Amino acid sequence: MIWLSLRQQRAETLLTAVMLLLLAALFVPAGLHLASFYTQDNVAHCLHDARLGKSLACAQTLSDFGGRAGVLRSVMPWLTLLPGMIGVALAAPLVLDLESGTYRLGWTQSVTRARWLGARFGTAIVAALAAGGLLALLFTWYREPLDKVFGRFDGSSGFDLEGIVPVSYVLFALGLALAIGVTWRRTAPAVITSFLAYIGTRVFVDTWLRQRYVSPLSVTWSVNATAPAPRSLNYAWTLYSGLSDRAGHPFSGGYAALQACGRVAYNGSKVLNAHCLARHGAGFNTAVYQPVSRYWEFQGIEFALFGGLAALLIAFAAWQVLRAD
Amino acid sequence: MTGALETHGLGKRYGSQWALRDCTLEIPRGSVTALVGPNGAGKTTLLRLAVGLTRPSEGSVHMLGLDPHDDAAQALPRVGFLAQEHPLFGGFTVAEMLRVGRELNPSWDEEAARARIAELELPLKKKVRSLSGGQRAQVALTLALAKRPELLLLDEPVASLDPLARREFLQSVLEAVAERGLTVVLSSHILAELERVCDHLVILAVGRTQLAGSIDEIVSSHRLLTGPRDAAEDVARLHEVVRESHADRQTTLVVRADGHVYDSRWTVHELDLEEIVLAYLGQDAARRREEAVA
User: Is B123 found in the same domain as B17?
Assistant: First the structure.
């Protein structure tokens, strides 16, 4: 039965493997490049030496380093669609079996339906785990220097493509496509629908839910130019940041109030007068953020969320198959 | 010893629609039974119930004395099933299809399967999807036979085949029956080819069993009576009237006679199997046949 499951899933497994190979062909050389720039440009020095870090040269180095990653860094957020594609593709052969009626051939051999189900679902799940794991491994490795400079909460791709969550995304997409496909029994519409549902769920979690996993922290500091932003904001995921009063109440005055506090500096730029701002209740900056120390906690929560959803969807699909007429 | 296939008040409902209802029959072991009825009569449903692809809504079905659903692990190895359209994995080669049979059936007879494929001159390396309909049917039958089942269920096995392929396919079934004495149930809405192959008949119409028995017994008990209209009631008292049609003064009856018809007012004719089946399937089928002939 295992042989049959693998054989029926061959095309999709090969497709996934080719996709992973192409990604590796793109990201492995790029990752080696990035790592060599990291040492060449002495990026580590700028990061670890506080005094050096403030120098103009280091600011230049760090901003240049972002550019080294180039176009790949900007396309990375798109790659978060890949786990969805892989998961959905791995579910397709099973749905096709149901659509074309060939499942009747499998169910009338000497193996029981439960065993058939175990083998078919099992191979799909194992393939999903493997593909998700390799994907996560590749991107975690590639982003290592970037993480050192920009942090692991960088944009969304730092969180979405690293650690353990990609594995749960693949499983989730597989579960969606199985549940929808087994119920609908039409491959093309089921695959498209489940891929859209995958995107919808991911967007909802990325933009709304994730920041609420644990209530965020907040920090308030003076706008006085000599006071630097607090260290706790380093590499943190900043959800909000803006002017406020000492207690952290956000500044509610209009633009006119800020205008009144402005003066033109010698180089022509506008500088805000700190005392004036303080009088208007805007003498401080407040940031609401998730500290970088919560990274793995968030990874765990998100893994449990998508992994749990995947388990429910797969269980539903299995139940549908077992009771199918 | 229980029959090869037994049903009691078997019924299957899809939504509010009954696909099969109140079906009670027993198919003896070693028989070759034709399951006949118009499209939508519940033939496919009955066969799917028998092999456990579907669960009954009411009543019970037993295959070789086993419940096909609850005792699936014991029942499945003992039954061969060929679904309509002979589903096979299109992207597999013939050799791979044989491997499917080998991997999924502990009782698989590899030698016999290879021999059959060689005898039919089916190319092992060719993909199933590039085979002709007749070749595909033969591959599917090979799969079902090499499993060495005691009971073989064939759902409309020849409907999609051309006349030559039909003949070859049924010949293969007959050979298997002769070799191994297995029980076969095959459904069809065409009787002509099956008459040669089958010794038992079950007629299903509008989701119910209309007639079941051995073909010899069925042919010898049915008669066509022609006589005066006012005498029809007397016949109905003694014999089961399957169908009646009236002209001006004359009435024609198809009866399942309980013994001989001695009433001298009636002229008695013998009927062949096809005429009997058509009588059961009613006016509707008869008209369709006339249209087909014309």
Answer: yes
Q: What is the per-residue pLDDT across B93-118, written as a single tens digit (0 to 9) for each?
A: 999 999 999 999 999 999 999 999 99
A100–B55: do the CB atoms touch at under 8 Å?
no
* DSSP labels, B207-221: TEEEEEEEHHHHHHH
Upper half-sphere CA count for residue B27 (Cβ side, 13 Å): 32
A-to-B residue pairs, Cβ atoms closer than 8 angstroms = 64
Candidates A8, A11, A104; nearest CB to B87:
A104
Give the confidence band of A266 by pLDDT, cuts at 50, 70, 90.
Answer: low
Total tally of structural domains belonging to chain B: 2
Which range marks the domain in which residue B192 is found?
5-206
Cα–Cα distance measured from residue B120 to residue B227, given in angstroms and rounded to the nearest whole number: 54
Beta-carbon separation of A109 and B104 below 8 A: yes
Q: Which of A3, A112, A325 sits opposite B72 (nearest CB)?
A: A112
Whether residue B144 is found in the same domain as residue B169 = yes
Structure tokens at A68: 């080294």
Contact call for residues B48 and B122 (beta carbons, < 8 A): no
Chain A residue set in contact with B, beta carbons under 8 Å: 1, 3-4, 7-8, 11, 100-102, 104-113, 325
**ipTM score of the complex?**
0.87
